[in-house]
UniProtKB/TrEMBL annotation:
Residues 283-297 have a biased composition (Polar residues). This is Holocytochrome c-type synthase. The keyword Transmembrane helix applies. It comes from [Myrmecia] bisecta. Lyase that catalyzes the covalent linking of the heme group to the cytochrome C apoprotein to produce the mature functional cytochrome. One of its GO terms (cellular component) is endoplasmic reticulum membrane. Its cofactor is L-ascorbate. InterPro entries: Holocyt_c/c1_synthase (IPR000511), Oxoglu/Fe-dep_dioxygenase_dom (IPR005123), Pro_4_hyd_alph (IPR006620), Pro_4_hyd_alph_FE2OG_OXY (IPR044862), ShKT_dom (IPR003582).
């Protein structure tokens, strides 16, 4: 378990270097090995990704294939993890079924690059298990679940590291993972001490080396498997802490122990509501109570003076917290958002983890545009409806974003919460707490929203290969998916990792509403501006626009500085 990651822009990732072993050649019988002939290879396979020579490699003269492999870089070792740079996606000798070669991007930033680490594909993981002689009780059909558990453990580990790194957030807002080393045969001092007193021993250990803005810090991670909880989400656990290499690490451990002692006093859900996403509310009126207890698939889109909604809500998941609101938008509202967005669509960007600015990326290939908050009556009505069902005030929301996917366009798995201190600044609403994703069209094939780190996963021919990598939701016109990026205690939720699978057939239009923990952008008075009232919400908008902030920070600027960013046209005197 632990970390077999690789970077999406550079080398392969955490894991030990391992020596190759001589595997027997697969049978050429189609009945015993249904793998297509062009994929069969009697070569020896190294861990995760190394392709090397067959048995003839032990002779004094290198084979032609061996020379070609070296020239191709298959034997080039990445010093960050002692793994070959070139991935091996070929089936293992003796393999009976083809296994997915899809690799998911992690949320873990790779030190020295602007990319993140990539996870091994199920095929790469299967090759590794076979090479290590650890795959006797694992079949090709098991690999998706195995890789899912592996990836979840890595995401969980990084969140624990970030929790510790919060102690140094002022000096380094965005730590990165440089490299790591597997040490399964070396018990950590803490694990050894626990073993002396009859405690449970870890099944694996890793040392992760983190770049704290120029300072290298080592973390020790012990991975545990609990037999009595096998088959449940609590079967795996881990312990993460900075290695006691420096006085600073000792001080960090002391601070965290103090914080943990006081943290237990704020876990009372009766006094601190929100563990299921709810916030304190006023007592409902008789009409509200009747609406809340109504049965049947009744849908309401609001009434004069108050925006309400009632309808069918499906519990998608508790880890992450995700809920599907059926028929949340009417057909007319879906058409209105699409028609309003179509003339101003541009290539979508992503938020840079270090600078907090918007940048182009191959991770996101859609086109999109932003609306101002309350831009017109329809948008204003929808935003009030979102606030009603999410219990997050409307003023905490960013301007709505409309996205368009077609012809294989996608958005790789990512988190909506911020990794940088600039966007998460409390002065501008703080961290993102939740997302409402509204589907404006029904996609014929593909286009699902997938949660790769969720506890459950979908399967079946009706789902794309991408969707079957986790828990997924179909894009159905009018439906809306609400999910939370933060735990009720304010900690980020790694399981909220999500992506948009490639749109294979048809087109996907969606509208996204990100919500913060506090008021974002415009004041309550400024939110009253309707479509046609082309204004700037801040006197500094013109200056910011001149500095390029409309492109660098569209989430805020397109809502608050619509005039300076030329997102609208001011009324002429004849129109006033």
């Amino acid at each position: 378990m632990g970390g077999s990651l690789s970077t999406n822009k550079a080398a392969e990732a955490p894991g030990q270097a391992a020596q190759p072993y001589a595997a027997s050649a697969p049978s050429t019988s189609q009945s015993s090995c249904p793998v297509p002939e062009q994929y069969r290879n009697s070569a020896v396979y190294n861990v995760y990704n190394q392709r090397i020579d067959g048995p003839e490699a032990s002779t004094s003269a290198p084979s032609r294939q061996g020379i070609l492999n070296r020239l191709a870089g298959y034997d080039t070792i990445d010093p960050s993890n002692q793994m070959p740079r070139e991935p091996n996606q070929q089936p293992c000798p003796g393999q009976k079924k083809l296994i997915s070669t899809q690799r998911l991007a992690s949320s873990i930033p790779k030190g020295g690059t602007d990319g993140t680490w990539l996870y091994p594909s199920p095929q790469m993981f299967y090759n590794a298990l076979k090479r290590k002689s650890k795959g006797d009780d694992v079949t090709e059909d098991d690999m998706n679940a195995v890789v899912h558990a592996h990836n979840s453990m890595n995401e969980m580990t990084w969140q624990h590291v970030l929790h510790w790194e919060q102690l140094h957030s002022e000096e380094c807002p965005q730590p990165t993972l440089l490299r790591f080393r597997g040490r399964p045969d070396d018990l950590s001092p803490l694990a050894r001490l626990a073993g002396w007193f009859g405690g449970e021993l870890p099944f694996d250990r890793h040392d992760w080396y983190v770049d704290r803005c120029g300072k290298e810090v080592r973390y020790v991670i012990d991975f545990y498997f609990h037999d009595d909880k096998a088959g449940t989400p609590d079967a795996f656990s881990l312990r993460v802490r900075p290695a006691v290499d420096t006085p600073e690490a000792v001080l960090d451990r002391t601070k965290m122990a103090i914080y943990a002692t006081f943290a237990k006093y704020i876990e009372d859900n009766d006094r601190f509501p929100g563990w299921k996403g709810e916030l304190p509310q006023e007592a409902p009126t008789n009409k509200q109570a009747l609406s809340q207890h109504s049965t049947g698939k009744t849908v309401g889109y609001g009434e004069m003076g108050r925006e309400e909604w009632r309808g069918e809500v499906i519990e998608v998941s508790w880890r992450p917290r995700a809920f599907l609101f059926k028929n949340f938008l009417s057909d007319e509202e879906c058409d209105h958002l699409i028609n309003l967005a179509r003339p101003s669509m541009t290539k979508s960007t992503v938020v840079d983890n270090v600078t907090g600015k918007s940048v182009d990326s191959t991770v996101r290939t859609s086109t999109g545009t932003f609306f101002g908050r309350g831009q017109d009556e329809v948008i204003d009505r929808i935003e009030k409806r979102i606030a009603h069902v999410s219990h997050v005030p409307a003023e905490n929301g960013e301007g709505m974003q409309v996205l368009h996917y077609v012809d294989g366009q996608k958005y790789e798995p990512h988190h909506d919460f911020f990794h940088d201190k600039y966007n998460a600044d409390p002065s501008n609403g703080g961290q993102r707490v939740a997302t409402m994703l509204m589907y404006l069209t029904t996609v014929d094939e593909g286009g699902e929203t997938v949660f790769p780190q969720a506890e459950t996963r979908v399967s079946g021919p009706e789902w794309s290969d991408c969707a079957q990598q986790g828990l997924a939701v179909k894009t159905r016109r009018g439906d809306a998916l609400l999910f939370f990026s933060l735990h009720p205690d304010g900690e980020t939720d790694p399981a909220s990792l999500h992506g948009s699978c490639a749109t294979i057939r048809g087109e996907k239009w969606s509208a996204t509403k990100w919500m913060h923990v506090a008021a974002f952008g415009l004041t309550a008075e400024q939110q009253k501006a309707k479509w046609g009232d082309c204004i700037d919400a801040d006197a500094r908008c013109s200056e910011w626009a001149g500095m390029g902030e409309c492109e660098k920070n569209p989430g805020y600027m397109n809502s608050s500085c619509r005039l300076s960013c030329k997102r609208c046209a001011p009324k002429s005197p004849s129109m006033a």
